């Protein structure tokens, strides 16, 4: 029994039981003989329920039996009901294959991939007054982020460079600390390239200082393009272990002072003699020419490091999204400008991103570091949907879910529908498309909260009342959320609830899963969440680990679910 104290009374509840749900027990009984699951019956289950071919079922069966022997849940040479349930809930039976790793083709140009992209990567909190540090950069790289953004500003003395969110009260961090952190942690979680986007507000002299610092820090890790303008981006495979600089090229040298201009001081002194004036002009012109050469040299050093040039906006979307057949570049758009562009230039965005890189970033009014819906970008082929990694919530969960794909390497190949350049068959995410496939999701049960949370975390007077929410995020036509019933007073809720989702664009669909604790008097408590790429879901009965609101995996909390794919006509 489990007891809860209410004032001077004790409330008693039946102890939590982790026995299989009725639906899971029925599956076991359908394949078991004499209360155990023999090897042949197990292979049949793996083929018919888990969707494995004969060879894969044979190999998996051996692994399951080895797991059962280790757990001491074998009986008469077969798997007991407890052993079957324990294996179903193990990480070896996860919804995403833990052994799959990077499997997508990685030899295509960078423009063919969605890239895990951070925004203001150095901020520890909000956009207005939080501290700047290298720590969030390190965490982002360990989480698989491949695009790091640094904002570069002159210090108060104008003789050095700081990283901070300009024109705010954020406290700066030294550029050297950020560069060193990137060097040390860039390839901890993925061997594929890290793109360092610099938003610089520097004078030419400070740009030269940054160029020198970058070269000294990264050395051979730095990717230097052989030509000033690339006809096509290299591939992630080509760029393994490389750090790539992306920013706008330095401005053309502007002559700010001409020797022929008359100064106010000259006027005050009544002017110079003709001979003195000519000599002054000659000296001034020599000085300007000398400054010009020095600045051009500094510009060239800085410019040579920029492998992916950021195109300056013309504020004419027809011109901004024009595809140059001879060179590729990167364009950056704010959230608001991008939203308008999807309405008027949706097809142009898709065409542009087939060759070029497009980055969209959160609007400046997101002071709390909240995020926008990343699918808004992915639907049109946008590679770099910049996310505030410190801005936790459902929008960031979607980003984390997308980049669980392809072994979590930070690069996910865009679906073929977004790379089709045939003008008559260009993808339109707003079109009324036919259903391609149907996904049936069964939520059997959940467990683990009793280990990860104190007894009164969800309710002071009783065990929690859990319910699950399951849905799809993708193109607008596929988006939907459903909910199970509430299971009262139980740490191990059993729902056995089925949902079906018709999917028109499964290539862009993410499965959303959330668990909440129902509360009649205040906001429901959060019990965990995850987001998974639909195209990587393994069919069959699978274990699904849940994460906290920051996206970190909870130690023990899991759901047991089933995924079945059916043709659209069924």
Total beta strands: 23
Terminus-to-terminus distance: 47 Å
- Please indicate the percent range of residues in DSSP E strands (runs of 2 or more): 15-25%
Q: Remind me, CATH topology of the largest domain? A: TIM Barrel
Strand pairing plus helix content: what structural class?
Answer: alpha+beta
Question: How would you summarize what this structure contains?
Answer:
By secondary structure, the protein is of the alpha+beta class. It has helices at 22-31, 39-48, 54-71, 81-88, 135-142, 175-185, 204-218, 264-268, 274-305, 317-320, 335-355, 375-378, 394-402, 449-452; strands at residues 2-6, 9-13, 74-75, 78-79, 113-115, 147-154, 161-163, 173-174, 194-200, 243-247, 306-309, 330-334, 357-361, 384-385, 411-413, 437-447, 466-473, 480-483, 494-503, 510-517, 525-533, 540-547, 553-567.
Task: Please give the structural blueprint.
Blueprint: E1 2-6, E2 9-13, H1 22-31, H2 39-48, H3 54-71, E3 74-75, E4 78-79, H4 81-88, E5 113-115, H5 135-142, E6 147-154, E7 161-163, E8 173-174, H6 175-185, E9 194-200, H7 204-218, E10 243-247, H8 264-268, H9 274-305, E11 306-309, H10 317-320, E12 330-334, H11 335-355, E13 357-361, H12 375-378, E14 384-385, H13 394-402, E15 411-413, E16 437-447, H14 449-452, E17 466-473, E18 480-483, E19 494-503, E20 510-517, E21 525-533, E22 540-547, E23 553-567
Parallel strand pairs: 6-9, 9-10, 10-11, 12-13, 13-14
Antiparallel strand pairs: 1-2, 3-4, 5-15, 6-7, 7-8, 16-19, 16-23, 17-18, 17-20, 20-21, 22-23
Helix pairs in contact: 2-3, 5-6, 6-7, 7-9
GO molecular function, one term: phosphatidylinositol-4,5-bisphosphate phospholipase C activity
Keywords: Cell membrane, Hydrolase, Lipid degradation, Lipid metabolism, Membrane, Transducer
Domain PI-PLC Y-box: 332-418
């Amino acid at each position: 029994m489990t007891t809860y104290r209410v004032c001077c009374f004790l409330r008693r509840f039946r102890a939590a039981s982790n026995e299989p749900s009725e639906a899971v027990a029925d599956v076991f009984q359908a394949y078991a003989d004499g209360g155990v699951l023999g090897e042949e019956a197990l292979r049949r289950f793996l083929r018919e329920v888990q969707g494995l071919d004969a060879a894969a079922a044979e190999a998996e069966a051996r692994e399951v039996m080895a797991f059962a022997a280790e757990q001491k849940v074998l009986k008469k040479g077969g798997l007991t009901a407890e052993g079957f349930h324990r294996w179903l809930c193990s990480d070896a039976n996860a919804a995403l294959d833990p052994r799959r790793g990077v499997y997508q083709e990685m030899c295509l140009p960078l423009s063919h991939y969605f890239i895990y992209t951070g925004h203001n990567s150095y901020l520890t909190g909000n956009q207005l007054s939080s501290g700047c540090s290298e720590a969030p950069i390190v965490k982002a790289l360990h989480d698989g982020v491949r695009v790091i953004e640094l904002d570069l500003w002159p210090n108060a003395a104008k003789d050095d460079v700081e990283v901070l969110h300009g024109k705010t009260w954020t406290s700066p961090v030294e550029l050297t600390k950020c560069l060193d952190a990137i060097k040390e942690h860039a390839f901890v979680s993925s061997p594929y390239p890290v793109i360092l986007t610099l938003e610089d507000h520097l004078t030419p002299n400070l740009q030269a200082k940054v160029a020198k610092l970058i070269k000294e820090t990264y050395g051979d890790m730095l990717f230097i393009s052989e030509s000033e303008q690339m006809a096509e981006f290299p591939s992630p495979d080509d760029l393994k272990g490389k750090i790539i600089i992306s920013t706008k090229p330095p401005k053309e040298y502007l002559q700010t002072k001409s020797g022929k201009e008359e100064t106010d001081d000259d006027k005050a002194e009544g002017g110079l003699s003709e001979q003195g004036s000519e000599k002054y002009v000659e000296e001034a012109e020599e000085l300007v020419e000398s400054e010009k050469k020095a600045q051009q040299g500094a510009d060239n050093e800085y410019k040579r490091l920029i492998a992916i040039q950021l195109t300056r906006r013309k504020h004419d979307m027809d011109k901004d999204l024009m595809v140059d057949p001879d060179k590729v570049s990167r364009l950056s758009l704010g959230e608001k400008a991008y939203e308008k562009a999807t309405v008027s230039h949706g097809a142009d965005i898709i065409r542009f991103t087939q060759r070029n890189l497009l980055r969209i970033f959160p609007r400046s009014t997101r002071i709390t570091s909240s995020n926008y819906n990343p699918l808004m970008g992915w639907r049109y082929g946008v590679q770099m949907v910049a996310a505030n990694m410190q801005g936790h919530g459902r929008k960031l969960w979607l980003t984390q879910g997308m980049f669980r794909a392809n072994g979590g390497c930070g690069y996910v190949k865009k679906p073929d529908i977004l790379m089709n350049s045939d003008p008559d068959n260009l993808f339109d995410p707003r079109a009324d498309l036919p259903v391609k496939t149907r996904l049936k999701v069964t939520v059997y049960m959940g467990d683990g909260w009793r280990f990860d949370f104190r007894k009164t975390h969800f309710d002071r007077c009783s065990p929690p009342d859990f319910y699950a929410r399951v849905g799809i995020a993708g193109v607008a036509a596929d988006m939907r959320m459903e909910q199970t019933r509430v299971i009262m007073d139980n740490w191990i809720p059993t729902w056995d609830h089925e949902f079906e989702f018709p999917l028109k664009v499964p290539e862009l669909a993410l499965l959303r899963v959330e668990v909440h604790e129902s509360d009649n008097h205040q906001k429901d408590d959060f019990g965990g969440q995850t987001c998974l790429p639909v195209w990587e879901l393994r069919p069959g009965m699978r274990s699904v680990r849940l994460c906290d609101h920051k996206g970190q995996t909870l130690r023990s909390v899991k759901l047991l679910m089933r995924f079945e794919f059916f043709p659209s006509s069924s």
